[in-house]
Specification:
globular; 220 residues; alpha/beta; 6 helices; 35% helix; two-stranded parallel sheet; Rossmann fold; single chain
């Protein structure tokens, strides 16, 4: 009997959802190895953890190390951190698509992507259009399974201070119950719950392409 566990690769491990994903994957007995690609070391050690230092530009040179059954992508930036739209697009679109492409070429069967509620490649809004184009182009990589997670407001306490975001998180805490029926997909969701849903989705058979909004994530 083959008892070998799965190998996962995670992009965006230093981010909010990514940090929860990393903890969850390392603590999950289904996984024997978790590889992360980060710009600088997280100074974290774990028997299962393999750290690769890289970014969008150096990723092709790491191709030989990007061997996994599943690829988790929680990359992203903010308008404040990346005001240049060209660089923003590179982080939010080009990097995730390249990561999925290389992982597929190296044998990955499933990809799990953090996107956004309302993602639409035909939108006139840059942020929403970028998310939609990322989804479209990752689906086009044609992995056996593509799982897309579309949170609205991502809640929880971050290391970095974002006063406006703190305000909206508090606001969503009060207005979440208002979002019912067709608009419940706009409910805020904790970062740790997104990560939990992504790891849970990896344990369930799914269609070739599956999209998870608030309800689907909370049911996992």
């Amino acid at each position: 009997m083959d008892t070998q566990g799965k190998k996962a690769i995670l992009f965006g491990a230093s981010g909010f959802v990514g940090s929860y994903l990393l903890e969850g994957l390392l603590n999950d007995p289904d996984y024997d190895q978790v590889t992360i690609v980060v710009r600088k070391s997280l100074n974290k050690t774990h028997p299962k953890l393999k750290t690769l230092i890289g970014d969008y530009h150096s990723l092709p040179s790491l191709k030989g190390e990007i061997v996994a059954d599943e690829v988790f992508i929680a990359l992203g930036t903010t308008k404040k951190n990346t005001p240049d739209q060209k660089i923003y697009y590179q982080v939010d679109h080009d990097y995730p698509v390249l990561a999925a492409q290389i992982a597929r070429e190296k044998g990955a069967k499933s990809v799990f992507l953090v996107s956004s509620v309302g993602a639409d490649a035909d939108s006139s809004v840059f942020y929403i259009r970028t998310k939609g184009e990322t989804e479209r182009d990752i689906i086009a990589q044609n992995l056996a399974h593509t799982h897309i997670f579309r949170p609205s407001m991502i809640m929880g306490s971050r290391k970095e201070s974002r006063p406006l975001e703190i305000f909206f998180i508090k606001l969503f805490t009060f207005i979440n119950p208002v979002f019912v029926g067709r608009v419940q997909k706009y409910r805020g969701i904790e970062g740790k719950d997104i990560a939990k849903a992504m790891i849970a989705a990896a344990k369930k058979p799914a269609a070739k392409v599956k999209i998870y909004e608030w309800k689907e994530m909370m049911e996992l």
